[in-house]
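Extended Data, record Glycosyl hydrolase, family 13, catalytic domain
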Amino acid sequence: MLSFLSCFLKIRRRPKKWRGIEGSPVSFVGLDKKQLWYPPENTLMMQGFEWHVPADQRHWQRLRKAIPDLKDIGVDNIWIPPGCKGMDPSGIGYDIYDLYDLGEFDQKGTRATRWGPKEDLQRLVWAAKDMDIGIYWDAVLNQKAGADSTENLLVVKMDPEDWNTEISRPLTIDGWVGFDFPGRGEKYSSMKYHWQHFTGVDWDDASQQNAIYKILGQNKDWAKDVSDEHGNCDYLMFADLDHSHPEVRADIMKWGVDWH
């Protein structure tokens, strides 16, 4: 696999120096005046997308052509949109389907993403690297969308205003949680996602009803280290990934290591 995303972050730090500070038993009072580390530079980052960018699969090209002018005005880093394959060819990218498809495989009705094919993304990253501009990747790791199949789920319906409160007895629904990635196969990752890899969904295909459904099963629950909006804001949209599941964590970490 090409590791062309390795230049996404322009890291300017001294890891050994930081570890020494973090592990030091000395008092942290006045640490800002001791100059025991190297302060970050005053860098400028530009957000390289917004909601109304044309869905013409040419955005990576536009950004690449703008690199010299952005460098001239002092831009050091560009925050680019989620570049993984989504369930909708015109989606922004938060409707993420396949982490490992950056516009390489014919999936969900298109090879390229909304922003362009993988080759254009590569050219953008290489052009930025040549100009010493960092690229910040918007990684969407909370959910998956556009599943390939439904599966039977044992769930409880949650109060729409308080997602900690159950408002039904356990029931069985058909949820879109089967991800087989037929267009990619097992290239880059053999992981397939099924009901056990998720904590919640918002659609029952059997009854055609929209609601917040929490999946029941061993060790299944909302995450605790989240906002208390709606009581517990672990669930955001689509099929909510269960980050406590070891297979989910392993696949996300593999993606992060392999692609970055």
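Summary. The longest helix spans residues 59-72.
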